[in-house]
Design a protein that fits this description.
The complex is a heterodimer of chains A (139) and B (120). The longest helix of chain A has 22 residues, at 34-55. Chain A has helices at 13-29, 34-55, 87-90, 104-111, and strands at residues 5-10, 58-66, 71-79, 114-119, 125-132. Chain A is globular, with a radius of gyration of 15 Å. With 139 residues, chain A is of the alpha+beta class. Chain A has 4 helices and 5 strands; from the N terminus they run E-H-H-E-E-H-H-E-E. In chain A, strand 2 and strand 3 (71-79) form a beta hairpin. A 5-stranded antiparallel β-sheet of chain A has the order 1-2-3-5-4, with helices on one face. Chain A has one domain: Heat Shock Protein 90 (2-Layer Sandwich), CATH 3.30.565.10. With 120 residues, chain B is of the alpha/beta class. Chain B has one domain (5-119): STAS domain (Transcription Regulator spoIIAA, 2-Layer Sandwich), CATH 3.30.750.24. Helix content of chain B is 49%, strand content 18%. Chain B contains 4 helices and 5 strands. Chain B has helices spanning 22-39, 56-71, 83-92, 105-119; strands at 5-8, 11-15, 43-47, 75-79, 100-102. Chain B has a 5-stranded mixed β-sheet. Chain B is globular, with a radius of gyration of 13 Å. Classes of the chains: A alpha+beta (139), B alpha/beta (120). Chains A and B meet through helix 1, helix 2 and helix 4 of A and helix 2 and helix 3 of B.
Chain lengths: 139, 120
Amino acid sequence: MFAGELRVPINSDQDIVLARQKGRALAAEAGFSAVDCTLVATAISELARNIVSYAKNGEISFQLVRDSRRSGILIIASDDGPGIADLRLALRDGFSTSGSLGLGLPGVKRLVDEFQISSSAGQGTVVKVTKWRLDHRER
Amino acid sequence: MEVPILKQGEFLIATIQAALSDADLEHLRLALVQRVVRFRSRAVIVDVTAMDVMDSFASRTLREIALMIRLRGAETVIVGIQPEVAFAMVQLGLTLEGVGTALDLEEGLAFLNQKFKTIN
């Protein structure tokens, strides 16, 4: 199974498609269900789109992770863009500064199991999300 | 990746055949609206069976397509949303509100034929 880290540079809308296809392939390889693969791909699509819309350039990386009980996929979206001045506001449903639907981040949060964001104005943004694999049994 | 648009009588059928970038979706929006005008179509079916992901942008663009086409007095039906994609859309909070949907192309055509038959 793939063990390292896979990085996809995000510079255009084409890269959004590439990133989610690579993430889906990795999730499928790791044994995620079809539904979970689609949830992972959708989350990646939203995170990559935020990079293109707000920061222009950034990167998405994927890696398979495990703790004592289960395995999962960790997705990190990072950019050196303008950052988010008010994180609390950005995580509220219905808030947007780019005229989109305004449910990017809260929506992504619902698609995954763990969601962590660090950002401040002028400092770029890093979003780390983890999706754990269901039905994983100890071998 | 250009989306082929087929003219079938008074209807247009756009079949998405692979994952689409934002630019592809915007191109589809323009192409569909132009063709509805050119062919005086009464309805458009967009077949999204092959779409891997329906994220906020894709879903917004499809809603815009449906709204623009409605302003022309025609109807839009989205067909073939895969179960996993539907699941992800609901989790994400995307609803395609106000846009007609049907299980697949066949059901979409049956729905439109029925609808326009009753009007005639």
